[in-house]
Amino acid sequence: MNLQFSQRELRDLAVAWLALGVAFTLLLERQLVAALDLGGNLGALSPAAVAETLTVSLLTVGVGFLLHELAHKVVAVRFGQVAAFRADYRMLGFAVVGALAGFLFAAPGAVVHRGRITAKENGLIALAGPMTNLLLAVVFLVPYLAVEAAGTSGFLAEVASRGLQINLLLAGFNMLPFGPLDGRKIRAWSTLVWAIVAIPSLVLAVGALFVL
Predict the structure, then answer these.
(1) Which keywords has UniProt assigned to this entry (predicted)?
(2) DSSP states of 3-27 as a string?
(3) Helix/strand/coil percent split, the chain, to 5
(4) Residue 100's domain spans which residues?
(5) What percent of the chain clears pLDDT 90, i.e. is strictly above it?
(6) Which of 117, 143, 163 corresponds to the end of one domain?
(7) Which residues of 153-186 are buried (b: 16+ CB within 10 A; e: fewer)?
């Protein structure tokens, strides 16, 4: 398998990763948003706290997004497709602006691929993204359970908690069978496979939203 990245693709991945990290930081650090308003008190900010939130965001939502998209690419290339990630700069801007307003809707871009392909192969390419997020959720679950059992807090606890939550939400959201989401392509190939993955993913996503 010949997995290659153009300079444009690497740039798009880096910009999307950073933009999502910034957007998520703005969503969580409302004091930073208040300070950015006219007349805001920048002196009241804790640079260390903002830097920590940005780092957590890049390691959780950023990594979850990057590996989700790279999984699409790897499987597409495996099936002989020409595949590359393309950032949607308009939607990235919308994500940052939305975070300033207190909500986050991120559609940072997608892996586009071309070539002859079957419905099953297209479904498997789509399935690779949510499955990657579910696997990442398992990875984050281990330190999450460890810090919960120890009753500790801090940077590691925040990364574990956010990583688990974000990846469960990404998996569940992307399994919805609507619009350009992965769930629609998977269901077009196999309703059974879609249901087997989507139902537990959506249940876990709701749990992540209200419990974690």
Answers:
(1) Hydrolase, Membrane, Metalloprotease, Protease, Transmembrane, Transmembrane helix
(2) ----HHHHHHHHHHHHHHHHHHHHH
(3) 75, 5, 20
(4) 1-117
(5) 68
(6) 117
(7) eeeebbbbbbbbbbbbbbbbbbbbbeeebbbbbb
Bridge partners of 82, per DSSP, are 114
Active site residue 158: no
| Each residue's pLDDT tens digit, 46-83 | 677 788 889 999 999 999 999 999 999 999 999 999 99
The pTM of the full predicted model, rounded to 2 decimals, is 0.89
Domain count, the chain: 2
Set 9, 29, 52, 69: catalytic member: 69
Distance from C-alpha of 84 to C-alpha of 138, rounded to nearest angstrom = 27
Say if residues 88 and 109 touch (Cβ distance below 8 Å): yes
Indicate the residue among 102, 117, 132 that finishes a domain.
Answer: 117
Residue 189 is classified by DSSP as: H
Q: Is 10 exposed, middle or buried (0-12, 13-18, 19+ CB in 10 A)?
A: exposed
Query: Among residues 171, 170, 177, which one has the least CA distance to residue 195?
Result: 177
What does the block give as tokens for 91?
Answer: 């939607």
